[in-house]
Predict the structure.
Amino acid sequence: MEEQKTENKEELQQETTEEKNSDQGNSSTRSSLLWIFAGGYLVYTGYRLCANVISGAEDSSTGFLVAGGIFVVIGAVLLIMAVRNLAKAGAQKHEMEEAATKKAAEETAKDPEIAAAGKKRMSIAQRAHLAESLDDAPEEEAK
């Protein structure tokens, strides 16, 4: 009975850790997408500034050409960094999935009961009910 309690606690801790990691992944993806949009906007703005100076539009000076060049460089750096971050996050996610699959296979190979029963997913309500029944179990045994 106590083994079951510790197994349930370990499973809940593992799932909580996995949820935190996935939230961090989403945050990283969002920030990378924001960097892509910002970098694209800076490249576009820099290009338009340079194009206006080269075409000889009114109210354009060499200062706009310099500013446009700086915008293009900064925007390109943002785009490159964002793409690298997205690629790195994708690789880490893939590695985590492989590790989880390998760990599950090892656990199944160690314990024949798990292999026979298979891992069954529980809803939050079922987990709460399980926790309640575990809390009540020592009281019933004492009576």
Notes: Residues 115 and 140 are 31 Å apart (CA to CA). The chain has one domain: 2-142.
